[in-house]
Write a structure and sequence with these properties.
There is one protein chain. By secondary structure, the protein is mainly alpha-helical. It contains 13 helices and no strands.
Length: about 260
């Protein structure tokens, strides 16, 4: 908004607008240098907001780099406010680890204890995902297409199969999962600076299910707020009889076309 006002002021359009409204007196209260300083101060926040609020690309892995970048731009009380109010969760750090181009940044940013916590969490998620995949594969391989009653019985016993495998393989699974994580974190041959979605689409192995789950989480509520805003414009007085299925379909088309 301030950038728009500044552009209009420099081009003379703001003078013309206020002249038509007989409000030229407001120009006397504008400190052009202060306006420019405030715009420059807020630019990093504006760019950070844009990066964290996109709809069609992963954003959770950008939270920690965003905070670090802001702190490099800011000083004094403003930097202290960002440090205090900009909270970074463990899963933000784990998501950062899932970006090949940010692995080195993560090692340099976190202390030894925090980095080990990320590795341990990523290992646990990898092992859990691996167990779920094996149980799912066992179910699909051994069972014929079940009837409704058989499905409920099988789902009831699925957790027993999972627990059985965890107890039998716990010794090997932990070391294998950690090996996968450490190999990924230290692999210098991984292609960087490509689309993160394409990278994980081409990858295979135990980390892929973890990446799919974590990177699907938006960093902010902005995308859902946009959807609510679109829904509010869609369901108006003239369209009050739209059923829920049509509303869902129209919102889906709006978000994906």
């Amino acid at each position: 908004m301030l950038q728009s006002v500044n552009d209009a002021l420099r081009s003379g359009r703001l003078h013309d607008i206020l002249l038509r409204r007989n409000e030229l007196r407001y120009l006397n209260n504008i400190d052009c240098e202060l306006l420019e300083d405030i715009i420059q101060l807020l630019k990093p926040f504006d760019e950070a907001t844009r990066h964290l609020s996109t709809d069609h690309t992963p954003t959770l892995h950008l939270v920690l780099p965003t905070k670090a970048t802001l702190l490099r731009f800011l000083k004094g009380k403003l930097a202290q406010a960002v440090e205090m109010k900009f909270k970074v969760h463990l899963y933000h750090k784990v998501a950062t680890a899932l970006s090949p181009s940010l692995r080195s940044f993560l090692r340099k940013t976190l202390n030894g204890q925090e980095y080990e916590e990320v590795i341990s969490t990523l290992t646990a998620l990898t092992e859990t995902a691996g167990t779920e995949e094996r149980v799912r594969g066992l179910v699909e391989k051994e069972d014929p297409p079940p009837e409704q009653g058989a499905t409920e019985v099988h789902n009831f016993f699925a957790s027993c199969v999972e627990e059985e495998e965890r107890k039998e393989d716990s010794g090997d699974m932990e070391s294998h999962g950690r090996q996968l994580v450490l190999q990924y974190m230290s692999d210098t041959k991984l292609t960087r600076f490509q689309c993160l979605l394409d990278f994980w689409r081409e990858m295979s192995g135990g980390l892929v299910p973890v990446a799919k789950r974590l990177l699907a989480i938006p960093a902010t509520s902005t995308p859902s707020e946009r959807s609510f805003s679109v829904a509010g414009r869609l369901i108006e007085e003239r369209r009050s009889t739209l059923n829920t299925e049509n509303v869902d379909a129209l919102l889906f088309l709006h978000s994906n076309i």
